[in-house]
Amino acid sequence: MSTNNRFDQQAMDFLSNYLNTASPTGFEMNGQKVWTDYIQPYVDEIRTDNYGTAYGIINPEAKFKVVIEAHADEISWFVNYITDDGLIYVVRNGGSDHMIAPSKVVNIHTKNGFVKGVFGWPAIHLRDAAKEEAPAQHTIWIDCGCISKQEVLDLGIHIGSVITYPDEFFTLNDRYFVGRAIDNRMGGFMIAEVARKLKEANDQLDFGLYIVNAVQEEVGLRGAEMITQTIQPDVAIITDVTHDTSTPMINKAKSGDKKCGDGPVLFYAPAVQNNLRDLILEVAEKNNIPFQRSSSSRVTGTDTDAFAYSNGGVPSALISLPLRYMHTTVEMVHQTDVKNVIELIYESVKTIKNNHNFKYF
User: How does pLDDT run across 296-315, given as a tens digit for each residue?
Assistant: First the structure.
């Protein structure tokens, strides 16, 4: 069990750079470059696929293959319509939240760099309190200071330009990591740290370990669907975020009882292979790593589903990181949870052996 919240300066520099680098779904390249540069010293080989999923391999010659995986993409918006007077309407790229958009600053991505804009909304003085209208995807707009459609186009903005928030990573009360896109670039950070721990401890694995940072999870697990067919793993351990349900306005009877600071969350779900999950539970108990339990009906909604149901069935498990305020620009995770997820994946990987049998009977 981790008792020290703090990460060393090398890890913190990487985490800050990685979280602050825009990596919207379908346009993950810049974030993937930051990630691959960091893991390069800790793996034997790095590969990428046609859509940008990146992975480092330890023992690439081995026939038995174990994957540890996170996803690299963040939610964003696309330019959908430009009015004659230079205002921009949007559609989602992933699960972007229209409720938080008004008054947010945005970066509109162009070939010449970012163009600043703001999500506008009518002033409180001008709204009818009796008919208060909530923001909706089709009613929010971006104002980039232009007075005509041509001015917008002259800035390099076009239909399909991607839009992200510029909010940056910070630490809150020496306890929480806060920022946008912690879902799930914190996962990419954690699996990178597992690779680092294995290298620095000179741990010898008798199988191939594939440290996978997949693209396009936010639009349907697409990167994981592609890469599992490429790698054809024998085992997969996935890490993603899950909801902290301890804050107001959340029904625990519906969403379960999970809290930041209480440890990694181990899931029970059809896609989670029971024997692999039980191995991870045993590892947690043996190493005094605190953990929580949760269940998912039908699907986990994570890349676990893509790995589990591929290649005739891949034994897969999900280790989740409790997170507050998902799909906002102030996502929060507890530093001790981050450390304990890293430790749990690391110890679980060391427990798996070549040709490990996870069959039911």
Answer: 999 999 999 999 999 999 99
